[in-house]
Amino acid sequence: MDSRGLLAGFVALKLLLHLPILTRYGFHHDELYFIACGAHPAWGYVDHPPLVPALARLATTLFGESLFGLRILATLAGAATVLLTGLLARRLGGGRFAQAVACLAVLVAPVFLRTGNLLCIPAFEPLFWLGGSYLIVRIAEGGSPRLWLWLGLLAGVGLLNKHSMLFFGLGLAVGVLVTPLRRHLRTPWPYAGGALALAILLPNLVWQAAHDWPTVGFLRGLNESVLAGIDKVQFLAGQLLYLNPLAAIVWIAGLVFCFSAAGRRYRILGWIWLVVFLLLLVVQSKIYYLAPAYPALLAAGGVELERRTARPRHGALRPAIVAVLVVGGLALLPLSLPVLPIDATDRYARAVTFGAFENIYEITGDLHGMFGWPERVEAVGQAFHELPEVERGRVVIFVAGYGTAGAIDLFGARLGLPHATSLAQTYWLWGLPDRPIDTVLAAGWSVETLERIFAEVEVVRRIRIEHADPGEAEFLVAVCRAPKSDLHALWGKNRPW
To answer: What 8-state DSSP symbol labels residue 479?
Structure first.
């Protein structure tokens, strides 16, 4: 089998891992939010740039309310990530074993398995980082300096996917300064590439400025709440878990290759990873933020392991390396993909982590986030139709989280429901109806919270959501009347970032 057939085989295997179970669970709350954002086209949103909402709109336009049609985009992006990793390994001088190890390491990484089964921003990140790495390798090999323009184009679109593409840019800048690539700084091409990336990002920056830089406020709040709880030990341990602990031999070998004499020409790949790693370690970040930096390192690792096992006396190491990656991948597969019923997934997670997590939903929370949305919408629909007809025409549905709001917007039309309103993320920007509001159908809020806002609160539905996170298992729907203050004024005082 030549290398093209080998890479095609890994791409097919990636697709075969996902396609049979792509719709096993339901919509994820983030997917529902992206669909809602896509229904409100803009150059920006509070917590993300516009690319993935645009893809969600494309999917719903082409396939309607199809979970398969929505997620297939992420699965194809995952397959492309596997292919690009193999192609980069080949570009770095790797033969079939190097390409196989690189592709296999990406294939079995839990973080890429999870994102390949869900429409999410991280599903597309590796494509931009890998594409940028491939282009910089070609430049390092003496390719046309005009490749800097293509790199700028790729980076600009990557920034429209996630602003953390700036991390790649920082690593690239440092890598250029400390390697022979700095000679390119005496030419106009790197600056032209950077200007092109900025030009592509500019509409999003204009949107941010027009809306008082909501993403900056959102990230500041995230850092003070969620990220402050992730210490450096957790971040370091997470790198092993998210990439598959047994695959550490590959990416560590990639670092060795990049900083060795054999990989001197490609040292910039090592610098990109190292700079981003140190940055995220210092500033505190979510564990998966470093994930898109790994495929290029895995490609380099495949080349290094191929070099190290080239002698006949080391031949037995090659099948051992493959076996280690496969065993690690199979062991963690049920934590990454919905291959088991959700209760069995929880039991398996407790077993393989030896009970280390008091709340196992820290591991399986994303999978639990795919349950209960139709039930929530049904409860809201029943409460809506029990209202007097005169109130149904002017009632506002006020929802606690963007998942439920997105579910109402997606599934509610068939029940005759109006669009949801919410204080969550970009829903706040979309605001309340521009008219007096006297009756509110509140969903997902606690009674205590509602009684601070309304003089009359009547709980009309109280249901249990099977398989939901325990903190979200009870779902309330309440009819609220007689606001204690003007809701439009209250809305303006409760910007969620």
So the answer is: E
pLDDT in tens, 151-210: 999 999 999 999 999 999 999 999 999 999 999 999 999 999 999 999 999 999 999 999
Measured CA to CA, the distance from residue 301 to residue 315 in angstroms comes to 17
- Report the C-alpha gap between 399 and 113 in whole angstroms: 31
d(CA 213, CA 206) in angstroms, rounded, equals 9
> What three-state secondary structure class fits 347?
helix
Q: What are the residues facing 289 on neighbouring strands?
A: none
3 state DSSP class of 482: strand
Q: Where are the domains of the chain?
A: 3-339, 373-492
Q: What is the pLDDT of residues 376-426, one digit of tens each?
A: 999 999 999 999 988 998 999 999 999 999 999 999 999 999 999 999 999
pTM, two decimal places: 0.93
Under DSSP, is residue 61 helix (H, G, I), strand (E, B) or coil?
helix
Query: Within 10 Å of residue 310's Cβ, how many Cβ atoms?
Result: 12
CA distance 170 to 191: 14
DSSP 8-state assignment for residue 419: P
- Count of beta carbons in the 10 Å neighbourhood of residue 5: 9
* Nearby residues of 250 by Cβ (< 8 Å), 6 or more positions away: 101, 102, 105, 298, 301, 302, 305, 321, 325
Under a CB-based contact definition with an 8 Å cutoff, are residues 480 and 451 in contact?
no
Q: d(Cα 190, Cα 150) in Å, to the nearest integer?
A: 10
